[in-house]
Write a structure and sequence with these properties.
Blueprint: E1 3-7, H1 15-22, E2 30-32, H2 41-48, H3 56-60, H4 65-82, E3 89-93, H5 102-113, E4 118-125, H6 128-142, H7 154-165, E5 170-174, H8 185-193, H9 211-223, H10 231-266, H11 271-279, H12 288-292, H13 300-306, H14 309-319, H15 328-331, H16 341-349, H17 352-361, H18 371-384
Parallel strand pairs: 1-3, 1-4, 2-3, 4-5
Helix pairs in contact: 2-4, 5-7, 9-16, 9-18, 10-18, 17-18
C-alpha cells in the first residue's frame, strides 16, 4: 500500500498552480492521483459530503441526486485505482478537504488509512492580509453578493483535521512566494515532497482580478443573486469570468507599456526637477490606466480591523510562523486598497468604459454604458451561444 500525501491547500496558496502542474505526474515512485479533474476537491467532496446537502459549487451545476450518486461511484472507483499499490507515494490535492465536517473527515481518514501505510497532510499557511483579498475574489467568482473580509479561520478548519489525522502527521508550510525558488510555489512544493522538477509541467495560474473587474463582478452578483442551479447559467458565468480576466491581462499590458513610455520621458534631462516643481515629488503619480488595472486587494486597515487575534495566535503556535499583520495606523503602511463596500461600488460605477471592449468583441449592444449593462449584455450572449465564445 502507498503512502498518501494529502495536500489540503490552504485555499488561496497557489493550489491551482500546484494542481495543474502536477496533473499527470508519475516518476515511478510518486504519482499524482488521476481523478475527474486536476483539482481533487470536487471528487473528494462528492464522495464524503452528504449527497442530500451538496455544496454551492455542485448546486450551481444543476445536478440532481441521481447524477450526484452516479458521479460519486465514478470518483470512488478512480480513487481506489489511484491507491492500488502501483506507486510508493500518491499525491492528492484537494483544498475542499477543509470544508468537510468532523464525521466526513472521519470517513475520509478511514477510506485512506485502509488503503495506505501512512497519510501525511500538508498545508500552506498564508497571512491574513493576502488571504482576505484572494478569498474574497474567489467568492465573487462563485457568485457571492455580500461584502465581507474573509478570515482564514485557521483553528476551525485545521484544528479538526489535526484531531482526525493527528498533529504529528501534519506539515505546515509558509506561503511566501518571495522565499520560493524562482518565486514558484510549485517548485517549493516539489522540494517538500521529493518530486523531480524536470518531470513537472510547471504552470503558474494567476487568477487575480483587477479592482475594476472585481467591482463590476460584485455589482453583477448583487443584481443576479437569485439565479442558480442551471448548467447553462453555470457555464455562462465561467466564461464571463474568463473574459474579465482576459480583458484584465490585455489592459494590464497596455498600462505597462504606457508606464514604460512615461518612464522614458522622465529619464530625459530636467524631468525629475520638473516633477518636483509641478507635483511636489520626484516620484510620479500612478496613471489612470495603472489605477484601473491594479490588482484587487483590501486596504490593510480594513483587514486589521477584522482579524481574530486568538485565531492567528493559535496558528502561530502550531506552525512557528509570524502571521499577525502590522497595524497600518501604527506603521503608516495603509494604501489605496478597497476600504469599504461603498468604495467598491464607486469603482463599479465607473467601470463601464473599461469593460466595453468585451462587448465590442462579441458585437453586443448594452442598454447603456454602465458596467452592469455591459456585463448583462455579454452574459446573455454567452447564454445564447451555449457559453462557447469565439476566441
Amino acid at each position: 500500500m502507498p503512502e498518501v500525501l494529502l495536500h489540503v491547500g490552504m485555499d488561496k496558496t497557489g493550489s491551482t498552480s500546484i494542481q495543474h502542474s502536477f496533473e499527470g505526474y508519475d516518476d515511478g515512485t510518486l504519482a499524482y492521483a488521476r481523478l475527474a479533474s486536476s483539482n481533487h476537491s470536487m471528487p473528494v467532496q462528492m464522495l464524503f459530503r452528504d449527497p442530500d446537502r451538496p455544496t454551492r459549487a455542485i448546486r450551481a451545476q444543476g445536478l440532481d441526486l441521481d447524477e450526484i450518486l452516479a458521479q460519486r461511484a465514478l470518483h470512488q472507483a478512480d480513487l481506489e485505482t489511484a491507491l492500488d499499490g502501483r506507486h510508493d507515494k500518491v499525491l492528492i490535492s484537494a483544498e475542499g478537504v477543509l470544508g468537510l465536517k468532523s464525521r466526513q473527515l472521519d470517513d475520509l481518514y478511514a477510506f485512506l488509512s485502509a488503503r495506505s501505510t501512512r497519510i501525511r497532510v500538508m498545508a500552506y499557511v498564508r497571512e491574513p492580509m493576502g488571504y482576505a483579498s484572494s478569498a474574497f475574489q474567489q467568492g465573487l467568482k462563485a457568485g457571492s453578493h455580500t461584502f465581507h473580509v474573509p478570515r482564514p479561520r485557521y483553528a476551525a478548519r485545521l484544528g479538526e483535521i489535526e484531531s482526525v489525522f493527528g498533529r504529528e502527521n501534519i506539515t505546515y508550510l509558509r506561503f511566501d512566494p518571495k522565499r520560493f525558488p524562482n518565486g514558484s510555489v510549485v517548485l517549493d512544493f516539489a522540494s517538500q515532497i521529493g518530486a523531480r522538477p524536470e518531470r513537472i509541467n510547471e504552470q503558474r495560474i494567476n487568477e487575480s482580478l483587477t479592482q475594476t473587474s472585481a467591482a463590476a463582478l460584485y455589482l453583477f452578483n448583487r443584481e443576479r443573486q437569485n439565479h442558480a442551479g442551471s448548467r447553462a447559467y453555470f457555464r455562462a458565468r465561467v466564461v464571463l469570468i474568463r473574459l474579465l480576466m482576459r480583458e484584465d491581462a490585455r489592459q494590464q499590458r497596455r498600462a505597462k507599456a504606457l508606464a514604460a513610455e512615461q518612464a522614458a520621458k522622465r529619464s530625459r534631462p530636467g524631468a525629475a526637477l520638473a516633477g518636483l516643481i509641478f507635483n511636489g515629488s520626484a516620484r510620479p503619480a500612478p496613471t489612470e490606466a495603472e489605477l484601473r488595472t491594479a490588482k484587487f486587494r483590501f486596504a490593510p486597515s480594513l483587514v486589521h480591523a477584522s482579524v481574530m487575534e486568538d485565531d492567528i495566535a493559535w496558528m502561530e503556535r502550531r506552525s512557528g510562523l509570524d502571521l499577525m499583520p502590522p497595524d497600518p495606523e501604527r506603521d503608516g503602511s495603509d494604501d489605496d486598497g478597497i476600504r469599504s463596500e461603498e468604495h467598491l461600488l464607486d469603482l463599479a460605477a465607473s467601470a463601464g468604459s473599461y469593460l466595453m471592449p468585451i462587448a465590442d468583441r462579441f458585437k453586443v449592444t448594452p442598454a447603456n454604458d454602465s458596467a452592469l449593462a455591459v456585463m448583462n449584455a455579454v452574459f446573455e450572449k454567452m447564454m445564447d451561444q451555449g457559453a462557447r465564445p469565439e476566441s
